[in-house]
Structure formats: C-alpha cells, structure tokens
Amino acid sequence: MLNRLQNVQDDQWVDWVDSLADNDYVVIDDFLDDSLYRAVRSFFLKKLGHDEFDPAGIGALADHHLDKSRRGDHVYWLDSSVDLELTDVFVVIRELIDKLNRYCYLGIADFESHLAYYPKGTFYEKHVDQFKGRNNRLISMIIYLNEGWKPGDGGELKLYLGNEEKLIEPLAKRIVLFKSDVLPHEVMTTHVGRYSLTGWLLKNPADLGFLLG
Ligand SMILES: O=C(O)CCC(=O)C(=O)O
Ligand SMILES: [Fe+2]
After folding, report:
1. 23 in a structural domain
2. Within a domain: 208
3. Is residue 14 part of a domain?
4. Distance from the CA of 104 to the center of ligand 1, in angstroms?
5. Could you give the angle at the alpha carbon of 70 between the alpha carbons of 67 and 73, nearest 5°?
6. Measured distance CA(93)–CA(81) in Å, rounded
7. What pLDDT, on a 0 to 100 scale, did the predictor assign at position 213?
8. E strands along 20-96, which residues?
9. What pLDDT sits at residue 121?
10. Best substitution site from 71, 145, 190, 198 to test ligand 1's pocket, by max atoms within 8 Å of Cβ?
11. Helix (H), strand (E) at residue 10
12. Domain of 44: which CATH number?
C-alpha cells in the first residue's frame, strides 16, 4: 500500500499515542502524503461545486437544529460504500484506528466522517464533541486541507486545556486528534474559505451520526 504511514516506526506511534493519552490531544504534520491530499482536495472541490454540502446542525436527535450563530460550516457526510474515490483515505483512517487500538487499547470499533467547509466569516463556537445522552465518540480527528494557509487567514482550532489555550493552524495535510469527551474547543472565525475532513472514532458501530451533526 502506498501511504506514508507504512514507513512510520513503532517508536513514533508510541510517542503520538502517549501524547494523546497525556495531553488529551496530538498534532501530526504531513499525515497525508501528497497524492492522498490531492485526491481528497479535488473530491472536496467537486462536491462543493455540485452544491452537495448542507448547513451543519447542533445537538443530537430531537435536539438537532440549525443555528448559524453557533456554527457556520457546511458539511458533506462521507460513506465509504458510496464515496469510492476516497477509498485510500478510508484505508488510512482504518490503519490509524488499528494503531490506536494496538498502542492505546482504545477499543475503537468504527468511525464516522464528513467534509466541512467554513465560508469566509464563519466559525464554530466553543463546544465538546459528545452530545448529551450519546457518548459513542471516543476520539475526534480533523485533517486540514488548506493549501497556502498563512497567519491572518484565521480559522485556527482553539483547544481549551485546563487553564491554557492552544491555537492550532489548519495547515494542509495536518491531522489533529483529541479526546472527544473532555476537550472543549472552537473554530476561530476564518477570513478565507476553510476546508477539512472531520471524523469521529467510535466505541460502537456507526449508527445515525449523519443525522446527528
Ligand atoms: O475543524 C475543526 O478544526 C474543528 C471542527 C469541530 O470542532 C467539529 O466539527 O466538531
Ligand atoms: Fe468539535
């Protein structure tokens, strides 16, 4: 198989997993190699061009509603049996899951994912990724697709780590993983269109995540 994770040594995985366990998050640069990155980005732009994104919602089940004052992104839910152009990306996500299960004993069973587009001027206010009454999400993962991002473009991910706040730049090919249940975070206002693939690694098989936001 043709992805760069194949060349990652066990020591490196142990470092990443330790960092996730100890700090509640880890940032890995160049997680996607160039060809995978190009594939995801062009798929993204095609779906956006065909108007296949919907405004994202807030909350689970009956609580699900749209609220542009809280989050302004548009999403396209991915389905590995439909979005075959992204098969190599799903393979990489499954490899990541295998490693986390092996080195972190996390017991991840499945994942759900979507593409997210934040138009210029939008944000996602501070929140945690587990909804009340639904705790299937173990780890949140975001892969950024923002070519040429530079300071001043905005759209950083802000993590609230106890008394400290950490700003993460949404750089192309970078992945951020964090514990879904403990880490409040927000997306700062973006001053350019902002592109990402967001996923949640799940304790139990995926169910209706696409309905739940
Ligand atoms: O795109 C990001 O950096 C974070 C997105 C997020 O928090 C979410 O979709 O729940
Ligand atoms: Fe989130």
Report:
1. no
2. yes
3. no
4. 23
5. 80
6. 15
7. 46
8. 25-28, 54-55, 74-77
9. 97
10. 198
11. helix 10-23
12. 2.60.120.620
200 lines ligand 1 (CB under 6 A): no
Query: Which ligand has the shortest distance to the CA of 181?
Result: 2
Residues β-bridged to residue 58: 65
113 lines ligand 1 (CB under 6 A): no
Any ligand 1 atom below 6 A from CB of 168:
no
Can you give the pLDDT of all 213 residues of the chain as single tens digits? 456 777 888 899 999 999 999 999 999 999 999 999 999 999 999 999 999 999 987 665 555 666 777 899 999 999 999 999 999 999 999 999 999 999 988 899 999 999 999 999 999 999 999 765 567 899 999 999 999 999 999 999 999 999 999 999 999 999 999 999 999 999 999 999 999 999 999 988 776 554 554
Q: Which domain holds residue 201?
A: 32-212
CB of 177 sitting under 6 A from ligand 1: no
Around ion ligand 2, residues with a beta carbon closer than 5 Å are 129
Q: Find out whether 178 and 83 touch, Cβ atoms under 8 Å.
A: no
Q: From the CB of 142, is ligand 1 less than 6 Å away?
A: yes
41 falls within a domain = yes
C-alpha 2 to ligand 2 mean position (Å): 30
Indicate whether residue 75 lines ligand 1 (CB < 6 A): no
Is 196 a pocket residue for ligand 1 (Cβ < 6 Å)?
yes
Domain count, the chain: 1
Residue 79, phi then psi, degrees to nearest 5: -135, 115
Look at residue 208 in the predicted model and tell me its pLDDT.
Answer: 53
With H, G, I as helix, E, B as strand and everything else as coil, classify residue 145.
Answer: coil
